[in-house]
Design brief:
- It is built from twelve helices and 14 strands.
- It is α/β, with parallel strands linked by helices and 363 residues long.
- The protein has helices at 10-19, 24-36, 50-59, 119-122, 131-145, 170-181, 201-210, 224-230, 239-250, 272-282, 307-319, 351-357, and strands spanning 3-4, 60-61, 66-72, 78-83, 89-96, 101-104, 108-110, 125-128, 157-160, 193-197, 214-218, 258-264, 287-293, 323-326.
- It has a ten-stranded mixed sheet. It has a two-stranded parallel ribbon with strand order 1-2. Strands 7-8 form a two-stranded antiparallel ribbon.
- Bound molecules: S-adenosyl-L-homocysteine.
- The site of S-adenosyl-L-homocysteine has 17 residues, from strand 10 and strand 12.
- Residues 115, 117-119, 161, 165, 196-198, 218, 261, 263, 292, 294-295, 338-339 line the site of S-adenosyl-L-homocysteine.
């Protein structure tokens, strides 16, 4: 079987080349061809020695996941569904903004955490994505989006906020992020790569040492009783433990705050008393809030908070001195909004069936 070079970070490619008697600068050249030029054909890598090209053709490949569909939303959001084999597909979303272009990258086929308000969770879980399948999403998007008229890359930021829990696929996610940060590949600064987690505390502590990028945490509730229900991993790593890990993370983080994501669910977690409780909870931690209006999906059992409730919630947090943004709902005409990425998941947990058996709470 051929080795997929897309699986290698630069240190790994250096080792791989050294084992074959190839010089370090050759590995760097190949890294730049693959990731900066989006080249998958060794014969087109014209400044490599012919003998090296022959060797690579015989033993290696640059294998990116095949594109199943690409969709564009009226607001400029784009979504790609990529084939990761055996009937599975993962989704990647590009979100253009005035001052940046953000790519939302998936880390797993489905998700094993059972957050009650997330449609990816409802799909069940199949497997972790490989490094090549994670970085392949950026490779594809970069190739299709290209550069701006000023010759800057259209994709300036990456958020690990697509399908899956990134910290549950630790090694491959960290490897892929190290390629995102590498100057011989995408050269993104740590501030421009954000990992979002529902709160796997031991892995968060490892990330602080291995690859401290910007951190977003899916908080969604101001107390353990409610969070146990909405984000069940809270039963294992409750709020006090999670917040302590966030504090430790900040010692190494590229930004001096944590972003707390908070989905706005009508009547569930969006009342003024929830906001007050939240303020008391995070008072001692440097943080910002990103309120995410709930994005509905069939039989979710939840409704989006009204604009008035969201405004009131935001004002309470702001009055206490917190910076609060409300996430714009982008690409909802192509189901590309947060929590709507479903991809194509051959569920190994049989969760889909469990859910079909449950009585729906929808009206
Ligand atoms: N598993 C990681 C990465 C997912 S990021 C995490 O939990 O952080 C996607 C963000 O969208 C998370 O904050 C997630 O909780 C939120 N989300 C999930 N479903 C949603 C929905 N239906 N509407 C709005 N936000 C949702």
């Amino acid at each position: 079987m051929k080795t997929n070079l897309l699986d290698f970070s630069l240190p790994q490619l250096l080792d791989h080349f050294a084992a074959q008697g190839e010089k370090p600068f050759r590995a760097k050249q190949v890294m730049r061809w693959v990731h900066q030029m989006g080249e998958a054909d060794f014969d087109a890598m014209t400044d490599l020695a012919k003998s090296l090209r022959e060797k690579l053709n015989a033993n290696a490949e640059v294998k990116v996941p095949a594109l199943i569909t690409g969709q564009a939303s009226d607001d400029g959001t784009r979504k790609w569904l990529l084939d990761v084999g055996t009937g599975n597909g993962v989704e990647t979303v590009f979100i253009p903004e005035d001052d940046r272009g953000t790519l939302c990258v998936s880390s797993q086929v489905g998700c094993a955490l059972d957050c009650t308000f997330c449609s990816t969770a409802r799909q069940g879980f199949n497997r972790n994505l490989s490094t090549a399948e994670i970085i392949g999403q950026l490779w594809w998007a970069n190739k299709s989006m290209g550069v701006t008229p000023k010759n800057e890359r259209v994709i300036s930021n990456v958020v690990m906020m697509g399908m899956g829990e990134p910290l549950a696929n630790y090694d491959n996610v960290v490897n892929a992020m190290s390629i995102m940060l590498d100057d011989h590949a995408y050269g993104l600064s740590r501030r421009r790569v954000t990992l979002s987690t529902s709160g796997l505390v031991p892995a968060l502590d490892r990330l602080r040492e291995d690859c401290p990028v910007a951190l977003a945490v899916s908080l969604h509730a101001p107390n353990d009783t409610l969070r146990d229900e909405l984000v069940p991993i809270n039963q294992k790593y409750p709020l006090r433990t999670l917040l302590a890990a966030c504090e430790r993370y900040l010692e190494k983080a590229p930004r001096d705050f944590v972003t707390f994501e908070y989905v706005m669910l009508d009547g569930v977690n969006d009342r003024p008393h929830h906001a007050q409780e939240l303020i008391a909870l995070v008072r001692d931690l440097p943080c910002k809030f990103n309120l995410i209006p709930f994005n509905p999906f069939p039989n979710s059992g939840y409704a989006r908070s009204s604009n008035n409730s969201i405004r009131a919630f935001r004002e309470i947090l702001q009055a206490a001195g917190f910076v609060v943004t409300v996430r714009k709902t982008r690409g909802d005409d192509i189901d590309a909004a947060c929590g709507q990425l479903a991809g194509k998941v051959q569920d190994k947990t049989r969760r889909t069936i469990q859910w079909q058996d449950r009585p729906t709470t929808d009206a």
